[in-house]
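hi! just following up on the protien thing from before. the input was this:
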Amino acid sequence: MRSLRRLAGSTWLRVLVSAGLLALVASRIDFGAAGDRLSGGRWGYFAAAVAALFGSFLVGAARWTVFLQAADIESSLPRATRAYLIGTFTTNFLPTQAGGDVTRAWIASRPGTRVRTAATVVVDRASAVVCLVLIAWIALAADPGPVPGFLIAALGAAVGVLVLAGLAAALFLQGRAGVGRLLNERVRDWGEEARLAVRACLRAPVVRKTLLLGLAFQGMVVLALWLLAHAISLAVPFSVLAVTLPPVLIATMAPISIAGFGVREGMFVLLLRHAGVVTTNAALLSLMSAVAFGVASLPGGLALLRREPW
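and the predicted 3d structure came back as:
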């Protein structure tokens, strides 16, 4: 088990997985066709997608501020926004999907609040995935015709993963994980502090407010992907993209690649081909989404250069 944990945490293994998956996808790409789509790209749509993503970051920061306040962590909206933007920026450069979350938790916290702040980040991330799934079901109900059965099944599998994760979280909140006796007193205290913070974040008034913000946040993310599809003249219905994103996101959260590269492209290719999107176009859309995210997160780099909080 110790060897497996070392392998799972190995940066070199993640590099190999990402490189291997990207090479596999690249071997099936028609680079001439991809170049034609890019040369004929409508870059106004790309700019609009970047704007939508940056707007989603601001909404996400406002949403996280609600969680911070619920957990009794003193943080203003400007300070939380700064930490959130820096987190999105560092996500592009750290070899793990959680690196940006660790960064924003560290920046937003103070001595004595580290555990509670980290707990709000976990709640924020987990509930954001739930909001993305809700957006997918809403889009599916509004326009089910273009969505193939395979994508619906993949969305159902994503819901199953979330249910299992929710059950594990419920056991943790009730203190029934069964491992407390194996931990030292300090770690048990941290666990109890995290439990109290999570419970505070899950109070009904907090859930109502963050749910609305979360739906707006994820709606803008799906909108950005739809705009990127239009930027390369790819006619993919909004409902298809909305249903595709949750399985892709959950797959990229697995700690087996560098920032999800390779896994994301492979999932886009696998899922969108059932909607009639060829490998070249699906891979190009995936890579463009990564580029748009990187461009939209650049203000976080500027925020990182500031020595003093906003």
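The longest helix spans residues 114-142.
The mean pLDDT is 85.
cheers
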